[in-house]
Design brief:
two-stranded antiparallel ribbon, alpha+beta, 2 domains, 6 helices, 6-stranded mixed β-sheet, Peptide Methionine Sulfoxide Reductase, Chain A, globular
Length: 195
């Protein structure tokens, strides 16, 4: 019986420590949500989203295709079906998903199929990969509003599809623009953080 009480005590102490650690982590990192966008070469797209107030973290990678753990070379061969994409972790208390959609549609030309600037291929397609029905509804509503506006002379070809597995790109692609000040990209980077 004494041994059982000792085990219970160890388990209880472990639970208290785990609960305290979870509370500390929650305080340090507020509840976040995930958004995933493809708007051409992911280097500039990531750099632009990193400047948005309320964005906690970003990662570049590949999504929307059929090959598991694709490499950059495979994606560039147009055989995997993946798009170069940016996964955005954001704090909805500081930035709305609708604002992220606005940033997304301002970054690129959503009327060119499988092309952004000089980059051509299906991996450069325009796409919103939604994670929740709420994100889907917001993306479709935003796209419909843009389509009714006179902002674009041609139809918007942006895909709005469910998020699938996001395969993180090779490490040298992560924060590429920050690491390579002379990097070239079709995305014009904002000079100051967006509110």
């Amino acid at each position: 019986m004494r041994q059982l009480r000792g085990i219970v005590r160890v388990v209880m102490v472990g639970l208290v420590v785990a609960t305290a650690a979870e509370a500390r982590q929650e305080k340090e990192h507020p509840m976040t949500e995930t958004a995933t966008f493809a708007a051409g070469c992911f280097w500039g797209v990531e750099a632009a989203f990193r400047q948005v107030k309320g964005v906690v973290n970003t990662a570049v990678g590949y999504t929307g295709g059929h090959t598991e753990q694709p490499t950059y070379e495979q994606v560039c061969r147009h055989t995997t079906g993946h798009a170069e994409a940016v996964q955005v972790e954001y704090d909805p208390a500081h930035v709305s998903y609708e604002h992220l959609l606005e940033v997304f549609w301002n970054l690129h030309d959503p009327t060119t199929k499988n092309r952004q600037g000089p980059d051509v291929g299906s991996q450069y397609r325009s796409a919103v990969f939604y994670h929740t029905p709420k994100q889907q509804a917001a993306a479709e509503a935003f796209k419909a509003t843009l389509a009714r506006s006179t902002r674009f002379a041609r139809p918007i070809v942006t895909e709005i599809t469910p998020a699938t597995t996001f395969w993180r790109a090779e490490e040298y692609h992560q924060r590429y623009v920050e690491k390579n000040k002379n990097a070239q990209c079709h995305i014009p980077l904002p000079s100051t953080p967006q509110e």
